[in-house]
Write a structure and sequence with these properties.
- The structure is a single chain.
- By secondary structure, this protein is α+β, with helices and mostly antiparallel strands.
- It folds into 3 domains: 244 residues, no CATH class; 84 residues, 2-Layer Sandwich (Alpha-Beta Plaits); 56 residues, no CATH class.
- 33% of the residues lie in helices and 33% in strands.
- It contains 11 helices and 20 strands.
- It has a 5-stranded mixed beta sheet with strand order 11-6-1-13-12.
- Strand 15 and strand 16 form a beta hairpin.
- The longest helix is centred in the N-terminal third of the chain and has 22 residues.
Length: 395
């Protein structure tokens, strides 16, 4: 599986992303030809080799022409940008990716300004250079055939920057909204390291954030930002490669606490609340605590970014006064869900594959729902689903 890892040690912006993708080998002329299919005018593209702290990188720039009709950073609505993308002749996959990125931007701007998404007017991100950055990135991804994207935590600067709304804090409000539930790193650098465009790109494309997953590196690209930083190279580094295993990786947080002074009947309610809040798994382990008192160890497997809310739920719903947390890496089989037809109704089935072996598991909740509706034993639904699985074509 072809994959990318974004190393955002100096943040991320739209021009840094395209610069790194060009540095990986994407042809600028191909990007230019595809972008000409959009109803945009008054600009040209430039790519040049520069050095940041001795590291050679590609600097991508959009040059606005004074005689062009779009050089004054017009305010475009979300629907106008979608029209520009939809009416173009770029590939369907590039269109879909670009619209997903702009949709996230629109949602963030709507939240910041407390208006409906349909009424959002883009300012900086409605300008030609930002549209080029987002659509150009989508075209480059399509050309590279990348299947999955991972990212490091996102580095943020500090201080203030000027926008169409005046002076605003760093990270910009839209950037902060886009990076909700995503690991970030605060720095002492007085600069906007991550822009709203960059935050929209990485938050849309990356499926997980953390350490680099196991991969066979095929190429490394460096995209340069406009500003020269004294403290560190202002670069975005992208690794392009292949996974060496069929296994997928991600990072979770294990939350644990020991309980010996609570009515156990209430623990079932606590489990329900934790699952409602997004826990991946919840389980209890009988233990012996101090003074030989029997107790329960509550363990929660939490998605990265949800650990605070789930810990708060534990502290509110149980008698404990503290929890333990530790990050853990997981290896897991890729999983898909299919539907099989039974005489009682359609049953969802989880499918995993590895080294030519295929495993099927009817989903309990799906079987339970059908059993209740048909007023039959759940065992009959489960066995009927297994029978339908046995007649599936083997790949």
């Amino acid at each position: 599986m072809k994959m990318m890892y974004f190393d955002c040690f100096s943040g991320i912006s739209g021009d840094m992303t395209l610069g790194a993708l060009l540095d990986l080998g994407v042809d600028l002329e191909r990007i230019r030809i595809e972008l000409e299919k959009l109803d945009l005018h008054g600009y040209s593209l430039r790519s040049e080799r520069i050095s940041r702290h001795g590291i050679s990188a590609t600097k991508f720039s959009v040059i606005l022409h004074p005689e062009g009709s779009d050089h004054d950073h017009p305010h475009r609505t979300f629907s106008e940008i979608l029209r520009i993308i939809d009416s173009s002749g770029i590939s369907d996959s590039a269109k879909t990716m670009a619209k997903r990125i702009f949709d996230r931007l629109a949602e963030a701007e709507a939240k910041v300004h407390n208006i409906p998404k349909e009424k959002v007017h883009f300012h900086e991100v409605g300008a030609v250079d930002s549209i080029v950055d987002i659509v150009g990135t989508s075209i480059a991804f399509d050309l590279l055939g990348v299947e999955r994207v991972f990212s490091s935590p996102i580095s943020l600067g500090r201080g203030f920057t000027r926008s169409a709304h005046g002076v605003i804090p760093i990270p910009a409000p839209a950037t902060a909204e886009l990076l909700r539930n995503i690991p970030v790193r605060q720095s002492d650098i007085e600069a906007e390291l991550t822009t709203p465009t960059g935050a929209a790109i990485i938050s849309t494309l990356a499926s997980q954030f953390g350490a680099m997953p196991p991969m066979k590196i095929e190429a490394v690209g460096y995209g340069a930002g406009s500003r020269e930083l004294r403290q560190q190279p202002n670069l975005l580094r992208i690794f392009l490669g292949q996974t060496e295993s069929e296994l997928q990786t991600d990072t979770v947080v294990l939350i644990e606490t020991n309980i010996d002074d609570m009515n156990h009947e209430m623990l079932g309610y606590t489990m329900e609340k934790l699952f409602e809040k997004g826990a991946l798994d919840v389980f209890f382990t009988p233990i012996y605590m101090k003074k030989n008192r029997p107790g329960i160890k509550l363990t929660v497997i939490a998605p990265k970014g949800r650990e605070t809310e789930l810990s708060r739920t534990i502290l509110v719903e149980t008698s404990t006064i503290g929890v333990r947390m530790v990050e853990a890496s997981r290896l897991k089989l890729p999983r898909e869900v299919i539907t099989v037809h039974t005489p009682y109704g359609d049953v969802r089935v989880k499918v995993t594959r590895m080294e030519g072996q295929v495993k099927y598991a009817p989903e309990y909740e799906s079987c339970r729902r059908i059993a209740l509706q048909a007023d039959i034993p759940i065992r009959e639904v489960y066995e009927s689903a297994l029978g339908a699985i046995a007649h599936l074509p083997r790949k």
